[in-house]
Structures are given as structure tokens and as C-alpha cells.
Amino acid sequence: AQSVTQLGSHVSVSEGALVLLRCNYSSSVPPYLFWYVQYPNQGLQLLLKYTTGATLVKGINGFEAEFKKSETSFHLTKPSAHMSDAAEYFCAALQGNRDDKIIFGKGTRLHILP
Amino acid sequence: DAGVIQSPRHEVTEMGQEVTLRCKPISGHDYLFWYRQTMMRGLELLIYFNNNVPIDDSGMPEDRFSAKMPNASFSTLKIQPSEPRDSAVYFCASSPGQGIGYGYTFGSGTRLTVV
User: Fold this and answer.
1) CA-to-CA distance for B57 and B47, rounded, in angstroms?
2) Which tens digit of pLDDT belongs to each residue from A65-109?
3) Measured CA distances, B80 to A12, A101, B73 (Å)
């Protein structure tokens, strides 16, 4: 079964520093991958998605992620952190060969230090 | 479009009471998903529907939980009787079609507290 592992339940970076949130997936077939963001007391919002084609995917708010099949990774990055980026981030993948059920990682809470 | 609408936003109830959570998906979305979020277990898929038909309810924790989708614009998640361990944030999400390339649109959630 498909699984998604996010390394680090909490990550702290200084404002203006690089943001790197790690995600690895397990799949015997090429997955479809997503990053979602959850701000306090809100639902999840889609940041970006990888389906096919270009492996570097750009999303909203300056975030991007790169699909690396050889490393089974889909890490999320942003060159310069802003205070408003403080939130919880979820990596997700479509499950196995099915195309209608997304599996979520456990989430990484991003803290931005002034 | 108003997005996925959930009600109530907050619910506090006593152990043993029946609780009903409501969801209105985005018009035209064929899929509807119910998730539960807790600190300990993260996001758990409880059940999902396609064209109002339950497809996979393997995530429903116990018989105390039930979900219905009587029409394309409304779904309920019911807990009867409720227990303190059911305290969580319950999210509803919808998708315009099969998951490929679409992702889900989430509601703002219902925070349930069972005392």
C-alpha cells in the first residue's frame, strides 16, 4: 500500500531563510503527489501537485517541490521564509493504482523565527 | 462558489449523546470525503462517496459512526453514542472527479469536543 513519510514533525527556520520540508513516498508505480498547507483553524489548502511531466513543480506563495523518482522524494522548498508561512504542511499521494483516494503524511509544523 | 461548507464549526456534547456533522460539497464535485484529524493520529480518511454512493468505509472506526449522502449536495456524519475519544476535528472534502490532477477542496472543519 502507498505510504507517505514526512521527516520532522516540527521545523523551525528564521525569517528570510530557506524552507525545506521533506517527504518520501513508497510506491511500486509512479504516484501522483501533492503538498497541502493548513493554517490555524482552517481546512487544508492545495499548495501544488505533481502528476506527470516536469519534475519541478511550482505552487502558490512561492513554494515549489521537486519529484525525484530515484530518491522516492518530493521535498517542498521556498527560498525565503516569511512569517505568514507558519502553518502545518502535509505531503500526500494517490494510493497505489487507484486514482480516487489520497493518502496524507502526518504533517510538518513550520515555525518561523523572527 | 462558496467552497465546501461544513456545519457546525464547533460542537460540544456530552458522552452518550448523538452528534451529527454536516457537509455541503462544491456543486458538480462527484467525490466527497470525510476525514478526522487528531494530534495523535493525524489525518484519517473515514469514508468517501462517489456520486452519492459509499465507496470505501474501511476507515470508519466503529459501528457508532455512520455516514450518508442522500443527494449530491449534502452529506452527514453521525456518531451515536459519542465518546470522549471521538473528540477531534472532522473535515469534509470534495473533488470534481477522479483524484488524478485535481486534489481535494477541504471545508473549514468541525471541531468536536465530547465531555
Assistant:
1) 4
2) 999 988 999 999 999 999 999 999 999 988 655 556 788 899 999
3) 41, 26, 23
Q: At a CB cut-off of 8 Å and minimum separation 6, what does B78 contact?
A: B18, B19, B20, B21, B65, B66, B67, B68
Closest CA to B59 of A25, A95, A27: A95
Q: Which of A23, A33, A36 is nearest to A63 (CA)?
A: A36
CA-based max dimension of chain A: 44
B109 to A45: CB separation less than 8 angstroms, yes or no: no
Written as nine digits, the cell of B108 is: 473549514
Q: What is the pLDDT of residues B5-46, one digit of tens each?
A: 999 999 999 999 999 999 999 999 989 999 999 988 889 999
A43 vs B contacts (CB less than 8 Å): 4, 91, 93, 106-109
Q: For A92, name the nearest residue in chain B, comparing CA atoms only.
A: B103
